[in-house]
Structures are given as structure tokens and as C-alpha cells.
Amino acid sequence: MTFVKQESGPEGADDHGDPPGADDGYVPSRRRLDRERYKRDRARRATAVAALSTLVSAVVLYLVVVNAPGWPRTKETFFSAEYAREALPRVLEGLWLNVRLLLVCGVAVLVLGMLIAVARTLRGPVFFPLRALAAAYTDFFRGLPLIINLMIVVLGVPALRLQGVTVDPVLLGGTALTLTYSAYVAEVFRAGIESVHPSQRAAARSLGLTNRQALRHVVLPQAVRRQVPPLLNDLVSLQKDTGLVSIGGAIDAVRAADIIVGRSLNYTPYIVAGLVFVALTIPMTRFTDWVTARMDRQRAQGGTT
Amino acid sequence: MRPVLRTARSLRRAASAAIASLLAVVAVGCAPQPEDDASGSASSSASGASCAKGDLSTKTSGKLTVATDEPAYEPWFKDDDPTNGEGFESAVAYAVAKQLGYDEADVVWQSVPFNKAFAPGAKTFDFDVNQVSISDERKKAVDFSSGYYDVRQAVVALKGSAAAKATSIADLRKLHLGAQVGTTSLNYIQDVVKPTRQAAAYAKNDQAKSALKNGQIDAIVVDLPTAFYITSAEVTDARIVGQFENRGGTPEQFGLVLDKGSALTSCVTTAVDALREDGTLAKIEQEWLSDAVDAPVLK
């Protein structure tokens, strides 16, 4: 069939008509059918080109890697099935520590971060010391490298020999993680709180809500919705950083891999540990995406746009 | 069906463009670096190969590049300076260099982290000297010279602690032990002691020492010379509880680490063997590790 350049109807009107064949006696015009077929052809062609170029890229990449002179040794060193089998159970055992730390520290970080953020956004001159303290806290712990924070807490606190203070490296490490991450998360919360338009607060106050009620019922619910993606970022980051408590000798997933690598000089356990972490992160991301989408839908039903 | 034809044509065009550009990238960007020895089968034991200074294919011609970790610990090195020839491993390295015909001025030291020395890929050094124990499993990843020191593992605990009273491996079983990750010391804990509580694994011995001092663990396992140094200089309120017997009757040995299939392996091994035979190694050991003579054996 041939395409004759013709004046076509207004673009964009196609998608709003009823589907062809509906029982309203509507018969799509020849021109419309042509146009739809043309669009379908273009879409198909685009997909085919994308698929082919992906395939070609993959093949070339594969050939480059596999034909690299060092490939046989790299394969043996990083992708050994035998070592992967040996490493997986121990890595998973170590991962249990990461997961427990993530759950406990995650909750602590959210609570503490929220408290600090609220402290920073309090109004009124009487709260100045609290605001200053919260600001100093976030500045200090966001700036302090996590590894140094861990060193000081995990190796330094026990040296004080304080009565009744734990020397358990996992508890101490979790404390250090909570200190650093609550500073990050406090800033996320604060940005969220401040991104709610002042008119919202003003409207709430004019309805007779107290400052606290306005914060709780009007500002925070709107703020939290906006904070989900950056919060998830921090949560994933925290999940990976839980491994740093191995400074104190605790054996997490990466340290479990380390032990096998040190003995065998084969690096496959690292690959296993890396993939296990990724596998842990993906469901978490999908879940929060789903939660966010659901919240958005609920908000849209409210008719506020 | 002209559009289909056209589609096919442009597909071909697009595909050929893609392939051409990719191949160009491959040809330019990823030109494989030829390796001396891609197959991994070492030509190291070429019996006729000369080990004379001029014939050695070192990283830098006329120089011998030797690697070790930073910081370099006593008693293996002195004052964290491998270049002074003091400390057991520094002295061994210079003796091997001399045996291979290199003056002290021709020895170039390089700082390479313990784990980096075994990573695959081209090595930046001729050999690495870093208290690395020889094992068959490790030989799959790197070449070793013959052993230059027979090492034993020892247990260190704070004086007066329950751990310090241990006289057998069974006594250690209930304790919380620690060692540096990637060391045979940790393997001894896991394979010989098999403690009821998971051993603590530290990135560095320094952290293991501070954990011992802080009472976070009951005892640490290190090699015997290190144990003597720790108890005499670093953690003076600690003592050596005892040493382990060698596993399987074969002594554990430190070896010089070379790249897998390095052309130097046989020459370096020959040099180490010669030093052992003429008593040089024993003399160096006497000089730097003489206090590490003995400790009660834990059975």
C-alpha cells in the first residue's frame, strides 16, 4: 500500500475515539486505519532496532570479555562455582547479622531523625538552644566519616572501661551507624517539612489548630510522602554500611567472604556477597515504589492536584 | 509492500552502522594487551634459564622491585621502614636480592596491601614479602618461592584471665577468640580449635590487639614472632599462652609471593634455597627472631 501525503485530521484525536468495532455504528475511516497502521509499523520498527542493537552490543561485549587474554584466569578467580557453593551458606549466615542490624538501626534512625528534624523546625525564640543543638548534631555527624565514627565508638568506648557499658562490637557498631544515619535522615525529614507550602500551616492555624496539631495532622503527612524515595536511598545505603561493624570483629556477609578469600586467594565469595546484597535491595525498592504509588493514588482520589 | 522493504533496508542500515561502530570501538579501545603468558603455564622451571642479573626480566630493568604492606610490623621490619635492611623480612629480602646479584641500591620497595598482592592481573612488583603462608590452595592464584621461615601459630591472652590458664586446645574451645582476617591464624581457630563461639575476624592485627586490651575477646591467635613482639612491647600485660602444633605434620612456611607464572619464580626459589643451605637464613632468624624460641605446645 502507498502512503499519499494528505491533510490528516488533528493529531492526538485518535486515542480518544471509541475502539473500532464498538456498537455505536462508528466505522473508522480509511485514513484513520492507515494512520494507525503506520504508527504500528513505526513502533514495531523501533522495537526491532532497539532489540537488535542490544543484541549486537551484548554479543560484542561478551566476545571482548571472553577473548581478553586474562579471561580464563579471571573466570577462575571471580566466577568459580566450587567457591561460590562454599561461600553462599557462610555469606548468608553473615547476612543475617546485616539484616538484624538494618531492622534495629533502621527503626532507631527513623525515630531519632524525625525528632531531630522536628527540633530543627520548631519556631519561637525559646527553642533556640534545641535548634542549635540539632543543627550542630547534623553538621557534625554528617561530616564525620562513618568509618572513623565506627572506629571511635567500637574500639574507643570499650577502652573507657565504663561500668555497665557494653563492649559488644555489634551493639557499639549499631550505635555508631545510628548516630551517622540519623543525621542524614534528619536532613531528609527537614527538607520534607520545609517543602510543605507555608500556606498549609497558616490555613491549619487559622482553623484553630495548635502548632503541634498543625505539624502532626497537616504538615508531616504531606512531608512524609515526599520523603519516601530519598529515605529509601538512605535505607539501602544503611543496609550496605551495616557490614562496617566488622571493624569490631563481628562477621557479616562481606567479612565471611573475606575469610574465604584470605584462605584461598579466590575472589568468587566477594561476587557472591555482592549479588546477595543486590538481591536484598531489589525487593525492598519495589516494595517502597509500590507503597509510594499507592499513596499517590489515594492522594489523587482526594481530588487535590 | 514498499514500507516493509524500506523498513528492512533501514534496519539493515541501522544494524550495520551499529556493528561497524561497535567493532571500531572494540578495535581501538579494547585492543587486548598481550600478556607474557596468557595460558598460565609457567615457563618458570626452564632448567637452562640463567639467573644472572642481566638475564632476569624484572619490572624495571636492573632493579629488583620488592613489595610489602604498610605499616610494616616488627619484628619483620624495623621502624616501619623496609629499606633499612633491619627486621627479619627486610634482611631476607636484601639477602635474596644479593643472591640474585642486586646491590642494596638496586632494590626498590613498594607499598602493596596484603590482599592486593594476590589480586589477579599484572603485578607491579617482582616479589612480595609479607608473612604469607604457602598453601596448595593459594598456589592456584600466585607463585611462591620456597619457604624462608617455618612459622608456628601462638595464642596470646591477658595475664590473669581465664584464657591465660589454658593448657590444651580443649581449654580454648569455650573462649571468644580473635585473629586477623585472611591469615592462617584464623584458619587455626576455625579448623583446629573449633570454638563454640564464632571467632572474631579483624581487618588488621592492630584492631585485634585493641579488642584484646578492651576485653572484647579472650585471646588472639598470631604467629609466634608477632606474639613475642606483642607481649614484650605492645600489650605488656598479655602473655603467650602456648603455640599450636603444625597441622598434618608439615611445617607451615612463609614464602615470597610472585605473579602466577612469573619468569622469576625458579630463580628466586633457587636463591632462597641457597640461603637456607649456607646458613644465611638461620643467621638472620637468630638475629631478629631469636626471642621467639619456644612456648608451651597446646595439644
Mean pLDDT of chain B: 80
State the order of secondary-structure elements of chain B, H for helix, E for strand. Answer: HEHEEHEEHEHEHEHEEHHE
**Residue-averaged pLDDT of chain A:** 86
The main β sheet of chain A shows up as: none
Strand content range of chain A: under 5%
Strand content of chain B: 15-25%
Q: How can the largest sheet of chain B be summarized?
A: 6 strands, mixed
Stretches with pLDDT under 50, minimum 5 residues of chain B: 25-29, 31-48
**Can you tell me the overall shape of chain B?**
globular
Radius of gyration of chain A: 28 Å
Number of helices of chain A: 10
Greatest interface = A-B, 48 and 55 residues
Helix content of chain A: over 70%
**Outline of chain A:** flat
- Please count the beta strands of chain B (DSSP E, at least 2 residues each): 11
Biased composition (Low complexity) (chain B): 39-50
Domain Solute-binding protein family 3/N-terminal (chain B): 63-292
Keywords (chain B): Signal
InterPro entries (chain B): Iontro_rcpt_C, Solute-binding_3/MltF_N
